[in-house]
Every structure is written in structure tokens, then in C-alpha cells.
Design brief:
It is built from 3 helices and 12 strands. The protein is of the alpha+beta class.
């Protein structure tokens, strides 16, 4: 039978190892490895999810819009033969980063609201409201954007995307943050809900005048 002393020694063992690792300077490697593993899992999950559903991310700086001079463009496209529904979209910035001043954020959770606009056959947003839930049939698209800090230029955006480093070596891909979506597949008799986490690690430059409109 275990004695109280034995139980205490078992509990102390992990704490002793953690203290030793910290003293030896190894704790940074353990933490970095954990972050890299998590990032890898997120990326691999995204690559394996719904290959016929496209999430295209670009950025536009210096748009000329008085409220949204810099934005992250988010475009969705359904290439499946059956419809799907996008729901509960939100964005969470990486630690140390923030959105533009007119972004709709949740101060309690740190998440930012995303609303999509359906895109018509002419490639322009359909007039009307924007939605947190949108249905996309075959080859239909939806568009949204997230305000980035007003003061950002190309150099500052690139710096925000730079990976964290330890002793000059990249240890994890930082990125701007993560886009979260619930995708409901309607091709079967019973709808299937897939929760997606899309890390914003690499983004391309988009059009100079994005489809911002007047409302979210």
C-alpha cells in the first residue's frame, strides 16, 4: 500500500523535473516544442478538412477607406456539388496583435466578429445585410473583411507574420491569428458539422480597392 509519504514523493517528481529543466534553460525548448506541435496540428487539420471548400485570404493596405484603410480579406467558395452553411465565424489575433479601431470585438473573449456577404454572379456583394450564417450552393461565394491596425504598412505586416525565434532559429509560426468557422455539410440526409480553425500564417496581397461597402 502507498503511504502518504510515497504519494507526496510521486507528486513532487514532476515539479522537480520542471524546476530542473528551467534551471538548465531547457524549459524554453519544451514550451517552443509544444507551440510548434499545436501549430502543426492546426495546419494539418485544415489541410485535411473539406478539400472542395475554399478559404482564400489576402490583405489590402492603403484602401482609401476612412474607417478601414487596412483590411484582411476573407473569401469563401463552395466547390462541392451540394450546399453548405457557414456559421459562428470569428477571429482571434495572436498574442500581442490587435485589430483596427473599427473592428467589432468581444472584450470578454478577445474574439472579433466576422460577417459575410453573399457574392453575386457579377462578382460583387449582393446588396443588403451581412450575415454570421450564410448558405453557399455549388460555386457560390461569400466575402468578409477584418480591419487591421490603421498604422500598418508592408513592413509592419511582414513583422507581424514573422515566426517567433529562439537564439536566431524559428521555433514556431506566429501568424496574425486564427479564423474559426463552423461548416455544416448538407449533402447527406443528416447534416454534418465540422469546426475549422484556419491559422493565418501566410497571406497574399489582394486588390487595392476591396469590396468593403458601408456596412459589415
Amino acid at each position: 500500500m502507498f503511504l502518504v509519504k510515497d504519494i507526496f514523493e510521486l507528486l513532487q517528481a514532476p515539479l522537480t523535473w520542471i524546476k530542473w529543466a528551467k534551471d538548465q534553460g531547457l524549459w524554453d525548448f519544451v514550451t517552443a516544442g509544444s507551440g510548434l506541435l499545436i501549430s502543426s496540428v492546426l495546419v494539418s487539420r485544415w489541410k485535411k478538412k473539406i478539400p472542395e471548400f475554399s478559404v482564400h485570404l489576402t490583405y489590402s493596405l492603403g484602401t482609401g477607406h476612412k474607417n478601414y484603410p487596412n483590411v484582411l480579406n476573407i473569401e469563401l467558395r463552395n466547390l462541392m456539388d451540394s450546399p453548405l452553411v457557414i456559421g459562428r465565424p470569428n477571429f482571434k489575433f495572436a498574442p500581442g496583435l490587435k485589430a483596427g479601431r473599427f473592428a467589432h470585438g468581444n472584450t470578454a473573449t478577445g474574439d472579433y466578429e466576422i460577417k459575410f456577404r453573399p457574392i453575386g454572379a457579377d462578382g460583387q456583394p449582393i446588396p443588403g445585410y451581412s450575415y454570421t450564417h450564410v448558405m453557399l450552393r455549388h460555386r457560390e461565394q461569400a466575402y468578409s473583411y477584418l480591419p487591421l491596425p490603421d498604422e500598418w504598412d508592408e513592413a509592419m505586416l511582414c513583422a507581424a507574420l514573422e515566426p517567433k525565434r529562439l537564439w536566431g532559429f524559428p521555433i514556431t509560426e506566429k501568424g496574425l491569428g486564427t479564423l474559426f468557422l463552423n461548416v455544416v455539410l448538407l449533402k447527406d440526409e443528416k447534416p454534418k458539422v465540422i469546426t475549422m480553425a484556419v491559422p493565418i500564417i501566410r497571406i497574399q496581397k489582394g486588390v487595392q480597392t476591396p469590396r468593403l461597402g458601408r456596412e459589415w
